[in-house]
Each structure stands twice: as structure tokens, then as C-alpha cells.
Amino acid sequence: MIFSYYPGCTLKNKAQDLDRYARLSAEALGFTLEELDEWQCCGGAYSMAKDEIASKLSSVRALNSAKAQGRDLVTLCSACHNVLKQANADMAGDAEFSLHANNYMQLDEPYHGETKVLHYLEVLRDVVGFDALKAAVKNPLTGKKVASYYGCLLLRPGKVMQMDNPENPQIMEDFIRALGATPVLYPYRNECCGGYIAMEDPALAQKKSTAVMESAADMQADCMVTACPLCLYNLQKNAVTNSQVPVLYFTELLAEALGVKG
Amino acid sequence: MQRIGVFVCWCGSNIAGTVDVAAVAEALSHEPGVVYSTNYQYMCSEAGQNIIKDAIKEQQLTGVVICSCSPRMHEATFRKTAAAAGLNPYMVEIANIREQCSWIHKDMPTATEKAIILGRAAIAKVQLNAPLIAGESPVTKRALVIGGGIAGIQTALDIAEAGFEVDIVEKQPTIGGKMTQLDKTFPTLDCAACILTPKMVDCAQNENINIFAYSEVQEVKGFVGNFTAKIKKKARFVDPNKCTGCGECTEKCPMKKIPNEFNLGMDNRRAIYIPFAQAVPKIATIDPDHCNMLKNGKCGLCAKVCGAGAIDYKQKDEIVERQYGAIVVATGYNPIKLDKFDEFGYSLSPDVVTSLEFERLTNAAGPTSGTLLRPSDGKHPHTLVFVQCVGSRDTSGCGKPYCSKICCMYTAKHAMLVREKYPDTEVYVFYIDVRTPGKNFDEFYRRAVEEYGVHYIKGMVGKVAPRADGKLMVQASDLISNEQLHIEADMVVLAAAIEPDKTARSLGTMLTASMDTNDFFTEAHPKLRPVESPTAGIFLSGVCQGPKDIPETVSQASAAAAKVIGLLAKNKLTGNPCVATSDEMMCNGCSSCEKVCPYGAITYQDKEFRMPDRTVAIRRVASVNEAVCQGCGACTVACPSGAMDLKGFSNSQIMAEVDAICKM
């Protein structure tokens, strides 16, 4: 099975591991991520500005390319996932935004949110299935205590992301179980790490990321996994803690369990 | 041609503020058949009614049109007025120019024009009205109370006290409801069991009351004064006439690990159980989902130890059919599930509990025998945080939009009792608003703050984060000092919103009693008929109608009982003459009407008819039982040949109204 794939800017430089392991694992699981031609930055850095149409246009362009290919669009980065799904929901449900965007885009056929956007984790859960994933695992991570870190963007707003319950998510825990490891439940797994305000208010970002790291360490996690490059960076660089819990991309753990890490 | 009088009401400024009432009266005076037309400030007042009566007599009116509020409000009033002046009450028609006109329009010319059109339609209808005479039906002098909580108990006791028979149907093995689980009751702090259990015993001993515990209402048919209900008595697998409630079986049963519903799963019961010591009826019940004997035929220990020989593994559900004159709904409430409020950590830590669980943890008959201990480690908690409005007044869609009304008071009670019994504790209460109207309620709350030193903080809790060492990190905002607070708590108590019992919705359908979007039963009038359902003969008691505390529930329960007694005291009820009637000459015997009739009021019979060619033919035709027909009109729509018609709402009358509205 082939999916259109939107990697996003960060996966091309700082977060190359997130991308590389995802592609290797996909092949091992029998599906292919085919990168969209000439994709552009999703506009993630500006996605908070409500009246900004231009910043979302590149997302609409990516969504429309996937539509032209007749495939679902898969993405990995929490921020890209958030922006793509929000832009798609606006194109489908916000008539004024959709009209403006289509006027800018001047497409042959207007785009109205037809493409289905999937996070890589959703592909694992809903297309591959966690049972099939479990069966494909070659090196079960038995005994490893893994803390999932959802952050703020992956699941919220819940009505648009339609991925999991933002206050008590299960998808990453189920993923960790499928790999043979033991999920560690800790209360800060779905709190913001402060990454978005790291430039403006470094002290607050430090406080927030420290709280997340200490909460996971307190519950005896061996490592933490995330889907968000910004969270990973912020937790690694800004948290001030004595605990030595490494933070990894979830795809690295996946590739390791599937025996394709190399 | 009728002689019609038109009476336009101002309803103070309710109508006159938007509708030019004088212009309406003037315009309608020119309609065919209208011989008198006037307007008055309050047509429903005594003076207004006298205007109508005088006009009927002086003008020899044969029909009356009142342009006023909804017929649901005052149709009965004006029909009585007409009858008092010697006119058949069904010669009165109401044009609703308030709810359907003045209240929904802002512009006077538009509203005035619409009021004239509505009046014209009513005049066109009354032209075709014929005097109707209501039939009578007998009243079964027995009431059914659905739900055996404090609401149902109080209603049943009051009805029984007046000398009428009452059946209480309760789905649990015992009556008593939620109040049996409470520890103390605000604002006087008397023990719930001490004031409730005597009433439960009164119910059991009152010869006018039959308790159908562990039973459900399966079907209700009929109408006011003449209901028939099928009650399913679920099999207890214990003979109620033999069981003495000694409890021997409940100690010997080997299935020990079944979550005990009475203590909200915080301890265990056996597969054969009596919910609590003061249960009424005090009869053991076998839980078929957990009993080994019932599941695989192995065990039988309870039968061996039962000295009375009451155990009957072959007992079956039993259906009982009973007749009633009135039905009282008292189905109560449950706290909402907290799965959409995971920020409070309810699923993550056993030390985050609901307020009802907290009641059990402080109750002498609860799992800790009344000593407040943390569920996780059985240690004494030192810091407690109470969170109010968990799911109440919620606009996010996760909870309920309404105020659950009881939480402010019971939280003040909990906080006060904890501080009194354990002075070494710190107690915090987070609130949006403290709402304590009610006799001696605000004084009670102030005592919690001023005398017991409970820390009341305006603000909501955003996160409860359990730590590995068992502490609960509570993160909250203090809106008054504009600070973020971090409290290391030992226990967190969530005041979960309350919602109507899940059975209410299906019961509402069964009784054709209307409900609001939150599944609370709707009252016939929110202010003036608060204990009656709009469906005749159905009455409302307790939280099934809206959130209420115990004093208010008991008041409403007695009010509902008074209404039931008023109904059962009558020997006959005047029916509604607006019933269906079939024109036998036009009926083709197709049975369409019989199939759609929800009341079973239509039967078919073979009748002899003289045909045009002077022969006699036998034809199958519909006939309506007027005592059973409720006048819903379903048959008149279903009838393909136009033989069915509804008296007072005939097809020709409705077409005349439509014509009048369409006429420019």
C-alpha cells in the first residue's frame, strides 16, 4: 500500500531520525511512504494566527496534491499533523476560508478537504493494526519501561484531530505494548512542554519541560518517546533535571523492534 | 351561519407591546359571521371573562374566538367561561397571538398583520365547529410509583395515608435509593439512615403499599384513570415469603470478590447478598452473573445453609399486570461517568474519588467503617482538595450545561465534617461560584469557612498529577489573587455532575411523557404545574424532573402525592370529546387506522348495509372506542378514503383554517 507522505521541514534537517526510521519501518510492515513532489513548509510556525490565510496555503497545496494522487496523506511531525488537519478541516467546513484559499490557489478544480490526513501512529493503529504490528516485531522490547510523551499538538483540538482522547490517550501506550515494552503512565504525558515559548520566556519553558521529565522519571521510565521534533529538542535541551531519561522518536523504537534499525 | 364574538387580549404589554390590538379587533369585526369584536387588557381576569359572558348572552353568540396566549395556557379557562354563559365549551377557539406572534416578532405592523391572519383562521374554524359533549370514564383507585428512592417513598406514603393503594416499583433489590448511601445530610447534619430507614419500614408496613423491589416496569398502556402496567419481577432465586433475611447465606457463599455496588465497588460482596442491613424488603438476592450454581450447576452452598429453605435456583422472572389510575415517575439520578475528565486523574489514582464515594468512606456502614482512610494505602489523609463543578455548568460538551445544584452544599458538608473529625487536616475547596440559596444553607457554608477554617478558593483545578510516592499534585488557579497554586494533596474529591437515571429515556417513551434535551422530565408548566407531566395522569417526583436536594425532593414528592390524591378521589373523569369518528359509509375496511392507533382504540366489525340497488351487503368497517381514543389524529391521516375524522379538528375545519390564512 502506498501513502502520500508529507515529511515537513524539520524532518529534513534536525529530525532526520524520525523520518528515516519511519520509512524503514513502513517497508518492513508492507506499506510505502511516497514523498509529495515540491512540498513546502506547512506554515506550522504561524498556525496560531487565526486570520492568516497565506500561512495555511502551503498546507492546502500539499493536501490537494495528495487528492490528485488519490491517496491518504501521512505525516509524522506533531506540528505538521496539527496544521494539516486544521487546514483540511477549514477547507471542508469553513466556507469563507475555503473560498479565499481557493481564490488564491486558482486550482483547476476547487479543493474542499477531500483528502484524509493520517498521522503515522494512526496508520499503525487503523491500517496495519497493533495486533499485526505485534506479530511483525522481531526484537520485542520486553521489560523496557517506556513513557509516551504526547505533548500538546498531537491530539488537540480533539474534535479536529479525531485521533484519541486528549485527556487520557491510549494510542502510544497501545503502540508501546505492541512492541513488547511496558508503557509507563505518568500524569504530564499530555501537557505542553513549553517548546513554543522557549524563545519568549525561557524560564517558563524550562519549568514546563522539567516538570514533564521529572514526572516520567518519577514513574521509573527507562526512556521517553515522542512524535514531535520541537518537544524532543525542548525536553533534551531545556529541562533541568538529574534524571537521565533519554528522549527518542517513537519511530526509532519501532525500527529497533522490527529489526530494521541497522 | 354562526354568530361569532371576537375577544382580543392585550396580555398587559405582552401582546399589546407588539400587536396593535385595537386594529386586530377592528379588522376581525368585518369577517363573515362576526357580530361582536372587542379588546381588553387581561381577558383571563374576572373582568375580562365577564366581558365574554355578557357578550355571549347579549349578542346570542354561537361561537367565540379569543386572540390571546397559547391554548395550553388558558383554553380550559375560556371554555369554562363560555360554559358558564350557557355556550357549549367546544364552540370556543383560541388564536395564539402571544407565543406564536407577539413574542417572536419585533415589528408592530408585521405582528399586527399576522395576528389578524391567525384570528381569521380561528374564525373560519369556529364557523364549522359543532357542540361536543365529553364522555366520562371511571378511575382506578390505585397509583403506581416508579422508583423507590426518597422521592418515591414520600409520594407513596402520602398517597397511602390518604387511603389509596400504591405500588412502588424499584429496580434495585431494596428501596431507599441514593439516600441510603449518604452519611449525613445538610444543613442539619442528621444521619441519612436515621431519617430514611424509618420511612422505608413505614412503606413495608403500610397495608396500602405494595413494594415491587428488584422489578421493572415493562409496558404501560391506557390513559389517565385507566392505566395498565406490566411489571417484571426479576428472579431473585430466593423465595421472598420464606427468606427471613438472616444473612447466613451471604456469609457462606464462596464467591467473595464481587464489587459491592452499595459501596461503589470499594469493597466486595458475595454472589448472594443483601445490599445493606436495613434493606427493605430484607431478602437475599442471588446475582446470576456470579453465582456458580446458576452458571454451571456447581455449589449450592446457600441452599444447604438456608434454614428456611428459601433458595430456589429455578425461580423465573414473573410478569404481573396491574391497573392504575395515576403514575408517578421518581426515577432519580446518578453521578456522571468521569471518563471525559481525565485531567483530574480519576482513572490514574484510587485516591481521587467522587463525592458519593467519599460519602461511603465517611459512613459508619461503609468500607472503612467510617474512618477516613486513603483507598490506596489505608493511611490517614492530611491534605484534601475538593473540586466543585466537575462536569456541571460545562460548555465544552464533555459534561452537562446545567448546575447540579446539590454539590455546593454537600461539599461544604464534607469539608466541615473532615475538619471537625480530623483537626490535623488542611481542606481546600475549589469553586466557580458558591451557590447556597435555601433555608439555613448560606449560614451552613459560612460556618465551614469561618468556624471550621476550610480554605475556599475561587478557581478551577487544571490538573491532578499522581506522583510515584502517592501524593497528588494539584495544579489550580486562584482567580482572586491571580496566582497558580500547586498543592500536594493526599486525596482529591470530585463533585461530579448528576444526570437522570439511564432508564428515564425509555420510560419517557413508554409513558409518552416529554423530556428535555438533558433527559429530565418536562413539567406541564414550569411555574404553575411543576409536578405534573404534560401527559395526563403522569406525575413527577424528585430529581427525574431536575436537580434537587433532599428537602426539595420531599416537598415535590408530597406535592405530586397531593395531585395524585386529587385525581384518585374522583369517581369519574370527564374525557376529551375531541376523538376520532369513522364515517361507515366511506370506510373500506382496510385496517390502516387500526395499525397506526397507539391506544388500541379502533376495532373492526362486520355490519349490514343497505346498498343503492336495494340489496343488503355485509361490510367490514372501523369503529372507535371513544373512551380509549386520545384524539391524536394519527388515524385521520392514515385513512386512505377520508372516512376517519377528528371531532373538533375535522379535515374540513383544518382546510378552512388553511384557506383563511392563504386568503390575501
Automatic annotation (TrEMBL), chain B:
Limits of the 4Fe-4S ferredoxin-type domain: 234-263, 282-316, 578-607, 620-649
PROSITE patterns in UniProt: 4FE4S_FER_1, 4FE4S_FER_2
Pfam families hit by this protein: Fer4, Fer4_7, NAD_binding_8
Cofactor: FAD
Entry keyword set: 4Fe-4S, FAD, Flavoprotein, Iron, Iron-sulfur, Metal-binding, Oxidoreductase
Iron-sulfur in keyword set: yes
Molecular function GO labels: 4 iron, 4 sulfur cluster binding; metal ion binding; oxidoreductase activity
Keyword Cytoplasm in annotation: no
Family under the similarity heading: Belongs to the HdrA family.
Name of the protein described by the UniProt record: CoB--CoM heterodisulfide reductase iron-sulfur subunit A family protein
Organism the protein comes from: Neobittarella massiliensis
